[in-house]
Design goal:
It is built from 25 helices and 10 strands. By secondary structure, it is an alpha/beta fold. Strand 6, helix 22 and strand 7 form a beta-alpha-beta unit. The longest helix is centred in the N-terminal third of the chain and has 29 residues.
Length: about 525
Amino acid sequence: MNRHQRRLAAKSGNMRQDFARVLAAAFAHHQAGRSAEAEAGYRQALTMQPDHADTLHLLGVLAEQTGRSAVAVETIERAIAINPTNAAFHSNLGNSLRALGRFADALAHFDRALTLMPNFADALSNRGILLRDLDRLEDSLVDLDRAVTLNPDQADAWSNRGITLADLGRPRDAVASFDRAIALAPTHVNAHYNRGNGLMRLLRFEEALAACDRALAIRPNDLRALFNKALILLLLGRFELGLPLYESRWAVQRLPAPTERYTLPIWTGQEDLNGLTILLYAEQGFGDVIQFCRYAAEVKARGATTILAVTRELTALLYGMAGVDHLVELGQETMHFDYHCPLASLPLACRTTMETIPGGVPYIKADPYRLPWWRTRLPAGDKPKVGIVWSGSQHLKKHLGRSIPLTALRPLLDCGVSLISVQRDILDGDKATLEAMPDILALGQSFADFADTAAVLAQLDLVITIDTSVAHLAGAMGRPTWIMLPFVPDWRWFLDCEDSPWYPTVRLFRQAEHNDWDGVIARVASALRAFGAGKD
């Protein structure tokens, strides 16, 4: 080697050493949580070696950890283009794709990671989370069980396994899995607040609240822990404590915050509305709108002009509702207003307690012009006409306790009543079953909107439903309604009662234990036979 070659080799060696130092310093910043310094270091390293796959990957991981999933995907894809056989690259790309809601792409990269490295515990854990998102709970548990078997010291996998077990209706096993995660990582915030969820499903409410408080002691502004605590408090009827915390829902449920939608001030209940105009608007599902639109009358009574903004499916239903001066479609709010308030924040703004829930019904009525048309489609005869709803939207996960297979309702067929399906969306697995049950008159699939639903409900003798928007609509209309609830229901149905302060004409049928829909349906069938015989 001549002198020139030696100089070039020395220079190259120095550049490699400089690159290694810069990268090592950036990685140290990353591990210490100094995100800005880590990113600056990674970018400096890439100026020295622009095609260094590991650096690109680390920069992408950092972007994901700082909430920039789109940047993470772009950066890790560059790393994979350089080195397509690194399993960790594919697994972390899957995480970022999942965060963007690109579930099919995410699954493909998790599968690729596991093809490259079949015993890759992190990829198994990550794929297990995604399969839970896809409502493939049993498959999720298989992956997570394998992940903790391969790496029993992986706290994240134990925590994720606990969430899947809870969704499968196995809260005791879920709590044990969270306990294992916490033993491995005592400051694992997710394990603590999800442990609170598991304890809530075991009706161990004070322990559940303590678990949320432990998570908040570790990370005081953790919105998911605040939201979980809110749901527990609201389920217990502790509105004074729970409603303020329920405002954390915006970030947790990925809803546009009020301040992102509108620049004018939000009404908190303290501001005088006399002579002013307020916009009240939908933010969540149809049932939430139907439940909380009742507060428009209370706001109107404070001297305000009220504008109610809802999605198109609800405009015909709520037209002419008491307390609403102007009804508009959400996104078409062109009128001037002085304040705004999302509907689910009105209980807080109105300082609602268990004793002051505005339970007057009906506050929603059927359009009289639609009644005759639907009357001709109802069964003739003297049998009581009973509407049924057994599952929620295609987008609602079954593990939320808001779906029952149609076949489970067979005991209701021989109860001396005429059964009418008022369910608009039929899950794929129920279509053939419904066609094979001619004793059920299927009307719901013909509904154009909720005004059609209301026109049929108004002419039924009884509505039997799980926890869906129809349950809220029937209750808001003051129709006799039986609601079938899971062992631990949504907070608005509370605990240990068969009635509802929100809806005086509602009767609640609760599971006696987790996943026991058969027991619920048996009690409903017994009550329905009495109803059909005129004894109820």
